[in-house]
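Let us work through a complete example step by step.
Step 1: write down the sequence.
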Amino acid sequence: MTESPDQQTGTVAVIGAGTMGHGIAQVSAMAGYRVTLYDPQPGAVDKGLARVGENLDRGVERGKVSADDAAAARARLSPADAVKDAVKDAWLVIEAAPEQMEIKERIFADVYGFAPEGAVLATNTSSLSVTRIAAATGAPERVIGLHFFNPVHIMKLLEVVRGRDTSDATLEAALGYARAIGKEPIVVTDTPGFASSRLGITLGLEAIRMVEQGVASPDDIDKAMELGYNHPMGPLKLTDLVGLDVRLGIAEYLHRELGGDQYVPPRLLRTMVSEGKLGKKSGEGFYKW
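Step 2: predict the structure and record it as tokens.
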């Protein structure tokens, strides 16, 4: 490991170019950071960069982003062919891999070996233990959770998860980054599901049970929360956006860790996942996409 780069001049490295990773790369580049993007899946980085470009183009068309700012953000984004290349100059590394502990542990072991000494190492996990992920490194005080929300370039919340060993300096650096990219951070302790996932999964699973029991249609259940409680998106549409397989994995994990009937996955959810109805990414979930 080399000397830690300065937060103002160093790179933000994003490991994983999928649904969350490309969005994290985009908001980081738009905030003025140089960004490297890596994904082990062939073609994933190119696809992720293309999606960033599409988002920026839409922003320009809608008057949300100037053409100059969009071009500058594109220029700050660089693909990387390996973890080592992605993180070598990074002051901050953000892992955005699938929600599986073994995958994240492998990534953090690699990142720790290649990143500069002192770099902040962040995981985008929505429910897994930050403390356990940190144990895959030799510096758990530098590891923190940065739980983004989809779509990253629109959603304002950033859930900052402090692991058992996370240092004050790491927390302050993470909060500074959150504000620099225009997010509103909340700080939570490292407990299963944190704050947002525990609340969100409870509402989402109950909505699925209501569909299962024939209480109302998915659209009407969503309207109940959108119009009656002023939620910007109903729980079933949100489940489609997040991915039914992701929701199932989180529910299973929380039920193992916390118990409670509220976290038991409904049979309908298991059936839909087994049928490949995963939501927006598969073209069908509770809605057609």
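Step 3: interpret the result. Residues 60 and 66 are 6 Å apart (CA to CA).
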